[in-house]
Amino acid sequence: MKRLSQSKITLIIGGCRSGxxxxxxxxxxxxxxxxxxxxxxxxxxxxxxxxVEQHQLRRPAHWETIEEPLHPEQAVARLKDxxxxxxxxxxxxxxxxxxxxxxxxxxxxxxxxxxxxxALIRAFIGELQQSSLHAxxxxxxxxxxxxxxxxxxxxxxxxxxxxxxxxxxxxxxVYLVVAGLPVKIK
Length: 186
Description:
The chain is α/β, with parallel strands linked by helices. About 45% of the residues lie in helices and about 20% in strands. The protein contains six helices and seven strands. Strands 3-2-4-5-1-6-7 form a seven-stranded mixed sheet, with helices on both faces. The chain starts with 8 loop residues before the first strand and ends with a strand. The model has no long low-confidence stretch (mean pLDDT about 90).
């Protein structure tokens, strides 16, 4: 638990296929204690099912998996007196779920919905800070490219960026993973 012993919250961000999940899993494995894997992904098609299976195959069997696509703050509250590591994969998956929860037909996004989503993210951070667990939060860095051409794409990019900023501000450590190489930025 060498790298985590000083850290309550560690944010690990990077682009798609950057190696961020693998790096978080490596940190959790090195901790040598109980690991709680909080999965936020939702299987929506065969390709996503294969991605989830790849993640599952990499995890040791003794890690406890908790699937919570909409309310990870509630899962953290249930675990807060436990010792060990909580690996959340991923913040961006959760942001996606928040954008589309009860919002699939005639998709609409407005300030009230964004405020609700940000309140949930703040509640999640608050639960992490009160928890006995060391948290590893995996998230996507998506703001380095072109402005998305759709309102949905821009809403995701903006909310994801705000979520990353909130978690990074609360984190003791932040790593940006680029081409499989973790770079400590905080």
